[in-house]
Amino acid sequence: MEWTHWFHTAERHVADTLIGEVRISTVFLALDYSFSMKGPPILFETMILGGEDDGFQRRYCTWQEAEQGHQEIVLFVKQFSKAESQINELFKELEIESLLKEIKK
């Protein structure tokens, strides 16, 4: 009972970042997700919620690995988001150029 109460009331977030409509959440799972007796316990998880990579996840053994992994995924999402913005901007420019050419005809 005591563990169950703790599990439902404890602050288990390692980090939580929102980039546009994409959320990157890293939490302490409180259970070993390695599901084996080999190797260290896997106790942390980062998940991307929303966007193109919705559902992507990575798991870690330590709090420090989870913090680092969270930052790596944040960087990945920011870079992808920036590239996507640049591509969208390029398409807008091409559409405008195409419309101007049509108007000049």
Q: Give the CA-based shape.
A: elongated
Report strand %: 15-25%
Sheet having the most strands = 4 strands, antiparallel
Helix-strand makeup class: alpha+beta
Helix count from the secondary structure assignment: 2
Q: Please give the number of β-strands.
A: 4
Straight-line distance between termini: 77 Å
Oligomer: single chain
* Order of the strands making up the biggest sheet: 1-2-3-4
Q: Give the uncertain stretches in residue-range form.
A: none
Radius of gyration: 21 Å
What pattern of helices and strands is seen along the backbone?
HEEEEH
Q: What is the domain tally?
A: 1
What is the helix fraction of residues, given as a range?
A: 40-55%
Mean pLDDT: 83
Present the secondary structure layout:
Layout lengths: L1 H8 L3 E7 L2 E7 L15 E6 L7 E4 L2 H42 L1
Antiparallel strand pairs: 1-2, 2-3, 3-4
Summarize the structure.
The protein has 105 residues and is of the alpha+beta class. The N and C termini lie far apart (77 Å).
What descriptive keywords fit this protein?
4 strands; 23% strand; 48% helix; 105 residues
Write up this protein:
A 4-stranded antiparallel beta sheet has the order 1-2-3-4, with helices on one face. The N and C termini lie far apart (77 Å). The chain has helices at residues 2-9, 63-104; strands at 13-19, 22-28, 44-49, 57-60. It has one domain (2-104). The chain contains 2 helices and 4 strands; from the N terminus they run H-E-E-E-E-H. 48% of the residues lie in helices and 23% in strands.
